[in-house]
Amino acid sequence: MAAMAELISNSVQEMATNGQEPPVKYFSKGNDGGVLDAPVPLIEIPVVDLGLLTSPSTSAQELEKLKLALSSWGCFQVINHGMTSSFLDKIREVSKQFFAFPMEEKQKYSREADSIEGYGNDMILSDHQTVDWTDRLYLTISPEDQRKIKFWPENPKDFRETLHEYTVKLQETNDFLLRAMARSLNLEESCFLDQYGEHPLVTARFNFYPPCPRPDQILGVKPHADASAVTFLLQDKEVEGLQFLKDNEWFRVPIIPHALLVNVGDQVEIMSNGIFKSPVHRVVTNTERERNTLAVFCIPESDNEIKPADQLISETRPSLYKKVKDYVSIYFQHYQQGKRPIEAVKI
Questions:
Q1: Under a CB-based contact definition with an 8 Å cutoff, are residues 266 and 344 in contact?
Q2: Across-strand partners of 205?
Q3: Partner of 294 for a Cys bridge, out of 10, 89, 150, 234, CB 3.0 to 4.6 A?
């Protein structure tokens, strides 16, 4: 119970509301977060239209755009994804409502000390760890028999139904995009999807970033790449914060309110033999405005072997990665040590 009490007393939202000076564990150490007070340029992330991808007359051009986006940036904004603006706003609203509830209501869903699932913030695994300036609600979506419904808020009343509907649609979009990614590389359409598997792990992470008194030294999320195959982010409609690293320079991600931001994770970088890039990204804080986002991670079945597609290996381009199973467990071992997990599986 002591671990849970410590967890709850460390709510970033409470610290921000009370005007409390952040503890030293929140401050970036050395250069681990990159320079935080330098001006950061805005990037023009490619916008991919799913409608054009499905139309025979425009799909070739849109596939080329997808391929270019993933081989240069590792991410794109997707429009015409089949969800209305009002539905995306509804998802944002249930998230905002949850984090606006009194602490005792949110505490009903507090995560256990040795698990990431539920409401809380970073697991403290070492004394030297830098902690993110964020509170989160982390939920398993799929396989459905692994859902821990006790962590799914009963309030707002339509939270569970809305999240279920959203993630069903996202999983359809994910499968479609994995097929399109394979086609863009002239591979069999099911090439990446076969590795992804029929029983993938899909998780959702609701992120709340309150105003921060020291945005020059404190990050909302430390620099990292994702362990997923594909990640979908529903951005805050008004407040920026996400930044991507390219050629050792940070770039701000623009907000397109009714687009979804999609980035590939390490497992698609492996499948594509390094052609698609799993981008390093971070979240910066600000002193004035709260920010709400929802990330959904689509992760291959842990028993499936993930490896570069055979057709992408040749004498001129040998395999760059080892075969790997349960990449997520490798990922967390290295991530908490401040290392780039994908380095562990490079040949």
A1: no
A2: 138, 295
A3: 234
